[in-house]
Amino acid sequence: MHPTFGVRYALDVKMPMRDGVQLSGDIYLPDSPGPFPTVLIRTPYDNNTPETIASARAFAQDGYACVVQDVRGRWDSDGTYYPFHNEAADGFDTHEWIGRQPWSNGRIGMSGPSYLALVQWLSAPQGSNYLTCLAPRVVCAEFLGGLVRPGGALQLTTALTWGMRTNARTAQSIAFHNWTEAFHSLPIVDLDLQAGRRLDFWRDWLDHDRYDDYWEEVSVSHRWHEIRVPALTMGGWYDLYAADTLENFNNLRRFGATPEARQSRAIVGPWPHRLAESTRLGDVDFGVDSLVSLTQIERRWFNLWLKGEDDGLSEEPPLRLFTMGVNEWRDEHEWPLARTDWQTWYLHSDGNANTAGGDGALTTMAPAEEPPDRYVYDPRLPVQTLGGTTCCTPEIVAWGPYDQRPVEARADVLCYTSEPLPADLDVTGPITAVLFAATDGRDTDWTAKLVDVSPSGYAMNLCDGIVRARYRDGMAEPSLLEPGKVYRYEIDVGVTSNVFRAGHRIRLEISSSNFPCYDRNLNTGNDLASDAEMRAASQTVLHAHIYPSHLRLPVIPT
Description:
It is globular, with a radius of gyration of 24 Å.
């Protein structure tokens, strides 16, 4: 048993940054001589909330110093707030300040989710000798493709609602906005004004609509080899950063600068962005085993790296995954799993895959000569988001698994469905859809969604993705389309771990919108930020011998 310490604290302690700006931190210390290892939490969301205070006090009671700092320009910290771009330098300067304090033993771990996690990744390559380990939850490490424009489409709900809440020194209420009206407003560049507040960084994000120096400055994706410390990453299958959680785990284990960095770990459960709050998410109750104490898991991690106390954690497999369908945890050693059987499931129809009642089929047999499927995508009537990996306000746009049959009743949603499975099929890994498709415009979007259909007809969404046609070859050099030409599109559909039970069917939905999770492609090819003209697009999805549209599934042998 660890001794439980009393807690002493110092509030609003000013910490100088290299440019003279003073950041404010509250410091919680065990009531003991010390020195102590430190847990650092850097937040834009107020370091004085009851939840934050309770967490900091718990660390101090367990023998850690805990520093909870308001980031630049937020709450009690000086300076001007601007997302992402100050966090690398401010994080490093804070590490150096802590390391020189008499109560510090020179070992720092960082903790926190979302923005509190991105400050960890951004500061880690700066190389402070005091930084010892990280515990980031639910965040990406490359912010153009991971947050703002996954697949090239603007992640509208997340960017706008989060931006409206944080674009001031203190928290802003967004509960009374008319979000339906705001999301539909055009042009996109003025959408912030329609929602009631000018967001300078919103306009900068739209100006920088491709990967350039602005985004490279805040990307860690090319700096894994500079990170010397290990990370415990945490994520959820219904979090917008599910794939990033596993990619970050992979990259640090493969490319980290030290043996310690390559001992990183990850856990992913059936959770949304807020992680393990309830057994129930959306329509589905994943059972009592789905709830775990991430606080306890994190504490074991800090005990190992900051106190040198190993309770067996270092001998456990580095990856822990929750498999839906059977609602069981599994321990693994790598991602994707080494024993994966990569299966190709092809799209088929007689040209009428529109709606779940159409003739779209999904089989492992390659197509011969088949008529294409067609639909009209009208941005005036986009396909509505129905659950999934949205963020960060489920009361505005719900997240998690929901019955997709209302979406699948639309003529502009193609549904390709397998026969009932004769046995359980374990699908665990990254999902990819490859489409051969054409449109009559210079730009459009293609969406894909993986769905588990039960014998009752209930259609549970697992993961989804999007590609904006002009970014089909990457985010650095967008290029418009030749109308009517068939292009190959590869859609990152996300990641999952789900057992399709015997009698269930696999379904792939294909369409051109998922709104307001993503902004609407107006199908004009004009400037994305300033365009307010809308046109309907005639869409064609091909599946034939020379155009073998397919779904790539990571099947785990039983």
